[in-house]
Amino acid sequence: MSGATSASSMRPTPRVIRWLRALNPFTLAFNALFHAEVRSSGRKRGTYFLRFLAAGLVSGAMLLPAAGMAIGATESSGAERLQALQRIAPTVSGTIIWMTFIGLCLAAPVLTAPVVCDERRMRTLPALLTTPLTAGQIIVGKLAARLLHVIIMGLLPLPVLLAARAFGGVEAGVLAAAMGVVLATAVLAASLGVLASTWSRKASSASTLAVILLFAICVLPLLVLWTLMIRGVHISSGIVWLVASPIGVLGSFTARMAGQVGGTDPILIRGALLSIAINLSLAGIVAMLAAASLRRVLRAEAEGRTLAPPPRRRMRKGRKQTYALDAVVSAQDASSGGAGDGTGIAPRAGKRRRRAVRAGDGASSRVVGDHPVLWRELRPRARFFTAKRIVGAVLLAVLMSWITYEMWDQREALTTLISVVGMIIVCIIAGSTPAPSIAGEREGRTLDELLTTPLRPWSIILAKAAGVLRTQWMAPLILITYVAIVGVFAGSTHPVAILHLAMIVLIPIILLGGVGVLVSTSVRKASTAGAITTLVGVGLWAGLPMSVGILSAFFEAFVDTNEWFNGVMLINPVALAGTAVGSAGDDVMLQDLTYHMPSEAYTLTQFTTIIAADLAVASMIAALCLARAARILRPVSGRLAH
Questions:
Q1: Are 244 and 222 in contact (CB under 8 A)?
Q2: DSSP string covering 549-576, please?
Q3: Which span out of 131-135, 266-270, 623-627 was modeled with the highest average pLDDT?
Q4: How far is CA 375 from the centre of its chain?
Q5: Alpha carbon 465 to its chain's center
Q6: What is the Cβ-side half-sphere exposure of residue 40, based on CA atoms within 13 angstroms?
Q7: What percent of the chain has pLDDT above 70?
Q8: In the predicted model, is pLDDT for residue 7 greater than 50?
Q9: Strands 594-596 and 601-603
Q10: Would you place residue 398 in the very low, low, confident or very high pLDDT band (cuts 50, 70, 90)?
């Protein structure tokens, strides 16, 4: 009887029951890994710094109207100030919602991108194999721990938004639905960060890939709907535009608040709920893909192999590939008297003798000269054409070809839109690319070895800056090529737009490149450096226009606030790119070109001078940042910089 009982207790659990147990949300998310992640992140200063920064930005959005009221109080009566408050409340609420949306969409991938990259860098993936946790439990546990901080930062603006309701013009239901869309999009962004972390070796690369994927999810559906509408396809229901992208939902909410329409629109609320459901569903699908990808990585670690692509081999044109020989002398070679080329290795009879690689044999040479860091930064480290990149490039090419074909009659507007979208992507890449320059060496524990070399700090910093510029050529090249083919060669855009666009793309690349190298020298983690550099770009080119928009609502009665906004747009590469392509019609003579900014129109000479001045200022700031980075690195190296 006891034997039968023991046999029944040792019977394996059916697979369906095991799957149901694995899908239990408490065991899937709130496992031991979740508690460990929450406790470790609670001890980090960066966690509280991000929360303090989020709270400071929200408070600043409220302090700007307060400052405007205090300045304008002496020149307006009480009734006028009350009316100004009623006008400014929807603007402040919309600005805070958009600031929270942009901030969380950038912060969530930064928080979740190191999930697998750090484990791979610290070589602790084999330790995860010894735990009873499945790949799904590892992914969801780490994701839930990082989402806890994302949700906390997302809920910080709620008290300020509810306080703004006291001024009138904003409904509580509209605020709740808008914040729900923001949080759901942040969850999707965090899931994309985890998925990108399983594909990348560097956290900065993973966060950049996640932000680009999220940007594509938010923009491409709207672009497809716009294309269909231009081609005459009737979209009867307005809810399609709402569920296509969270940008459409938030734009509708902002327009409704700015219009000060009372009550809540049922279609708008329904669209927000559907958008929340779609974003959360996509987040679940992405998390499952991340678990499958992590399972593949763990299997590779268990088998003692890696999933990294093999090093890239290149041949000189007209020259056969050469091979390096190991200087190993076998007993058979020794007995033959060392016949051969002096290495002790005899060539096989009837076959062509392989020779060792010499300097000048192309990219395979190991002679690096007097600048080894520059050689390493400018040398391709991995195979460029991978399966993921080829599939992504093919899908993007097919989609853009279809959109271009369908909107060929409207190609002027299309090239302007693509230039704006492409410039945003260039700015995103420029913000995260410099992050691993010095911080990556510190995380990989190779900075000390680098500083033991006779290289000067200036040489190291300049080599890292050159590597940062080298890795960002793809996105600008695609953007300029598209505008050249669809705009210039098709006869809808003047060729001078290519020159302007080439100068404009250099502004964020050079500016954020220099700032990023300085930040990477000052902080310890590459992910933190990427977040700070991206925040600098967002604050300069998105936060500054929003702040000017809030202040203009108070000062428009006293001064011409359009001049303020125009001045802010003159340093914005996204606005400059749209103006450079949109205003350069091919049917206008070169000397008659006029570039329209928000409040003024500029001639060709003036607009070119503005772009050149922005590029010069960006280069000067980048040079100062690199000089400061070299000074920071000099005490560490213990040598004088030249």
A1: yes
A2: HHHHHHHTTTS-THHHHHHHHTT-HHHH
A3: 623-627
A4: 27
A5: 19
A6: 10
A7: 71
A8: no
A9: antiparallel
A10: confident
Using alpha carbons, select from 615, 512, 569, 583 the residue that is nearest to residue 208: 512
In the chain the first and final C-alpha atoms are separated, in Å, by 87
Residue 332 one-letter amino acid: Q
Average pLDDT of the residues in 22-40 = 74
Neighbouring C-beta atoms of residue 59, cutoff 10 Å: 13
Measured N-to-C along each axis, helices 411-432 and 203-230 cross at an angle, to the nearest 10 degrees, of: 170
Q: How far apart are CA 483 and CA 414, in angstroms?
A: 10
CB 84 within 8 A of CB 556: no
Distances (CA, A) of 286 to 181, 185, 202, 210, 291: 18, 13, 19, 11, 9
Q: What is the pLDDT of residues 565-622, one digit of tens each?
A: 788 888 899 999 988 888 776 566 677 788 888 778 888 888 999 999 999 999 999 9
Query: Residue 112 belongs to what H/E stretch?
Result: helix 78-112
d(CA 180, CA 160): 16
Return d(Cα 396, Cα 392) in angstroms, integer.
6
- Long-range contacts, 342-350 (Cβ 8 Å, 24+): none
Residue labelled with tokens 């994309």: 192
Return d(Cα 140, Cα 127) in angstroms, integer. Answer: 18
Contact 246, 100 (CB under 8 A): no
Q: 446: how many CB neighbours lie within 10 A of its CB? A: 11
Round the average pLDDT of the chain to a whole number and report it.
Answer: 76
Query: How many angstroms separate the CA atoms of 490 and 404, rounded?
Result: 12
Q: What is the pTM of this model?
A: 0.76
Amino acid at 498: I
Q: What does the buried/exposed string (b/e) look like for 159-169 if buried means 16 or more CB atoms within 10 Å of the residue's CB?
A: ebbeebeebeb
Structure tokens at 286: 């992405």
Radius of gyration (C-alpha) of the chain in whole angstroms: 29
Q: What is the 8-class DSSP label of residue 585?
A: B
Could you tell me the two tokens for 396?
């993007």
Q: Which two tokens stand for residue 302?
A: 């268990």
Phi, psi of 53, rounded to the nearest 5 degrees:
-65, -40
- Best CA proximity match to 530, nearest among 153, 95, 210: 210
Nearest-CA neighbor of 450 among 378, 374, 513? 374
**3-state class (DSSP) for residue 602:** strand
pLDDT 10s digits, 41-69: 777 776 777 777 777 777 766 666 656 55
Please name the amino acid found at residue 292.
A
